[in-house]
Amino acid sequence: MKLRVLGCSGGIGGNQRTTSFLLDHDVLIDAGTGVNELSLAEISMIDHVFITHSHLDHIACIPFMVDSAWAMRDRPLTIYAIEETLGILRQHIFNWKIWPDFTEIPDACQPSMRYRPIALGETVVLGERRITAIPAHHAVPAVGFHLDSGEASLVYSGDTTVNDDVWEAVNRIENLRYLIIETAFSDGEKELAVLSMHLCPSMLAGELKKFRRDAEVFVTHLKPGEVELTMRQIESAVHDRQPKMLLNGQELEF
User: Which domains does the chain have, with CATH numbers?
Assistant: First the structure.
């Protein structure tokens, strides 16, 4: 399996893109503005989109994806998320007011898009690939994802704050190679991080003390304008793991 980073920023501006990862050629993990890195032909090849939660920086490109590519495809785009997230998409995005309901286009029997609810702990099997929803603790219902090729695994935390449950799940993964974990704010904005249910460097350091696996750690969701500051604080706070900043265009094989 290969994960290509299309976007990993907590905002936009310049070359910054919000969260989206392309798994192989046909699966998206979140669909933020990073999807703009793909050509129309690449977008048309995506069959599966796994969404961690409903915040705009993680779903912004779903409406444009399906609208741009549906006529090029002979099967629906499948959106995987917990039921609470799918309910928000139905009610607030694909509602004929904000955007057309592509589960009814061209018609309900042959839709351009379909919803596939997943439950926490459920594994979706796509060929040799296994994608499992793992716990996240955020301001809206949310999950992270464990991606397993059989040979090795990658965990993406999604947006989350302090969360003992995720470490219980992650520490059971014997073939874990990579951990991608968010840190949205600097320590100077710790109160905002706590309020919005994100992490800051001191909180990340506390979380990584619970991490028992020997895996490479990457930091995602850094806010534009505070990237260098936040990474310096992470380097100072986390002494044994040496987390690296995730980069647009980076590829991780596992």
Answer: 1-81+83-117 (3.60.15.10), 119-246 (3.60.15.10)
How does pLDDT run along the chain (254 residues), one tens digit per residue?
A: 999 999 999 999 988 999 999 999 999 999 999 999 999 999 999 999 999 999 999 999 999 999 999 999 999 999 999 999 999 999 999 999 999 999 999 999 999 999 999 999 999 999 999 999 999 999 999 999 999 999 999 999 999 999 999 999 999 999 999 999 999 999 999 999 999 999 999 999 999 999 999 999 999 999 999 999 999 999 999 988 899 999 999 999 99
pTM of the shown model: 0.97
Tokens matching residue 192: 């905002």
Instruction: Bin 121: left if φ > 0, else alpha if -120 < ψ < 50, else beta.
Output: left
- Nearest alpha carbon to residue 51 among 151, 138, 153: 138
Taken as a whole, the chain contains a residue count of 254
User: Any residues with CB less than 8 A from the CB of 214 and at least 6 apart, and which?
Assistant: none
pLDDT digits (tens, 9 = 90+) for 119-168: 999 999 999 999 999 999 999 999 999 999 999 999 999 999 999 999 99
Q: Does a cis peptide bond (omega within 30 degrees of 0) precede residue 117? A: no
Sign of CA dihedral 187, 191, 193, 194: positive
Helix (H) or strand (E) holding 80: strand 77-81
Q: Which helix H or strand E contains 203, and what residues bound it?
A: helix 201-208
DSSP-based three-state secondary structure for 220 = strand
Q: Is the torsion defined by CA of 80, 86, 88, 93 positive or negative?
A: positive
Rg (CA), the chain: 18
